[in-house]
Design a protein that fits this description.
By secondary structure, the protein is mainly alpha-helical. It has 22 helices and no strands. Helix 6 packs antiparallel against helix 7, helix 15 runs antiparallel to helix 16 and helix 17 runs antiparallel to helix 18. The N and C termini lie far apart (87 Å).
Length: 391
């Protein structure tokens, strides 16, 4: 195998170096020529690799390795090619040999981290990424990779702390700020996340993914007009013409802003792109319900439930529809089903109580209002309904 040949040449070079024999002028000239030639071939192999011609790149880098078997950078490039071809065992063996040649190389540890990440060993991958980060503290890729592995290991707080610490040296790095903001958002700290994501968007003006993350955080923060403006621009981008998820987010913004007709049109478009996504049918059901199109709301809610039988929102919408149709028994069943799926959903509890109160059972209704209030003492709806039932 070519790998065995490379390793054999590598070992031969090591043994020759240990012999202590002073090379002749001819040998020195030959070695210099081989090194220069290997450098040229390595550059060619890199270009071939980056253009996607992996097989040709592998052949070229093998030739370079024969000429200069002690060049760790050539070995790293060879490992990268094997990684992209899915030959992770081969890649890691090459990286281990390269590490013997250059123990201080951050790149070797970084690509070993990639190998172990693909092997789904996040703790081992983190160790390599952390080592790369220590050896080359000015490379943000190492910091981001280490943070990603901390998240995979369930150490979200540690990942945020790492990015916060390293941000001092990367305060103008949009990618790092974006990653930091998204992790903070995962912690439920949307206001803090928005500060970071806004900075990232200002710095990374050529990266639409950062604007997307900002838009979705604005949506989660209920800042609908700004979110809608960003999402509308993103949806107009030709690269996003098949992004039904962005249309769903835009439709939700439009719905929350009272632009019901726009929301229906946007969500109709999204349903053509993502017909198997429950969220798009939930959005259409809500928009149809608000516009008084009860038949379309019914069809959309049922479609959502057919895709996801545990769709709490789907059953809540069915319950509201039946309530509008004065079908109290069917409405109660729908709300009870929503409660069975998610016992912590206070809206389901309040609506069960409301239907019971409408059915002439105020005392039983009060118990559901009280349960909702116990789950969420700040819930205004349950408090008002409980007060009304007690009058």
């Amino acid at each position: 195998m070519r790998l065995n040949t490379i390793v054999l040449l590598l070992l031969t070079g090591l043994l020759t170096g240990c012999a202590g024999k002073t090379p002749s002028q001819k040998e020195q000239a030959t070695a210099q020529w081989n090194t220069a030639r290997a450098t040229v071939l390595a550059s060619l192999a890199k270009d071939q690799f980056e253009s996607g011609n992996w097989e040709k790149a592998r052949q070229t880098v093998d030739e370079a390795a024969k000429l200069d078997p002690r060049n760790a950078n050539i070995q790293v490039l060879s490992a990268r090619i094997w990684i992209e071809r899915g030959q992770l065992e081969v890649a890691e063996r090459i990286l281990q040999a390269a590490r013997q040649l250059d123990p201080k190389s951050a790149a070797i540890d970084y690509f070993s981290g990639i190998v172990y990440q693909r092997w789904q060993q996040p703790e081992k991958a983190y160790q390599y990424y952390a080592s790369a980060m220590e050896k080359s503290p000015t490379d943000p890729a190492h910091v981001l990779a280490a943070a990603e592995m901390l998240v995979q290991n369930g150490r979200l707080t540690d990942a945020i702390a790492l990015l916060a610490e390293k941000s001092i040296g990367f305060e103008n790095n949009a990618t790092l700020l974006d990653a930091w903001g998204r992790l903070v958002q995962q912690m439920g700290r949307c206001d803090d996340a928005l500060v970071l994501l806004r900075r990232a968007a200002m710095l990374g003006t050529d990266d639409p993914s950062i604007r997307e993350h900002l838009a979705l955080c604005l949506l989660e923060s209920h800042q609908y007009p700004e979110a809608a403006e960003l999402l509308e621009r993103l949806c107009k981008n030709a690269a996003n013409e098949n992004r039904g998820d962005l249309l769903i987010a835009l439709g939700e913004c439009q719905l929350q802003m009272g632009r019901t007709a726009d929301a229906k049109a946007t969500l109709e478009q999204a349903s053509n792109l993502n017909p198997e996504c429950p969220a798009v049918w939930i959005g259409l059901a809500k928009a149809s319900l608000r516009s008084g199109d009860l038949a379309r709301a019914d069809i959309s809610a049922r479609r959502a439930i057919s895709i996801d039988v545990r769709s709490t929102e789907g059953y809540l919408i069915i319950g509201q529809l039946r309530l509008k149709q004065n079908r109290l028994a069917d409405s109660l069943k729908a709300f009870q089903r929503a409660n069975a799926i998610d016992a912590s959903n206070t809206v389901a509890l309040c609506m069960i109580g409301f239907v019971l109160e409408r059915s002439g059972q105020p005392d039983l209704a009060s118990t559901y209002y009280a349960r909702a209030l116990k789950l969420n003492p700040s819930d205004v709806l349950s408090r008002e309904l409980l007060a009304g039932a007690s009058d």
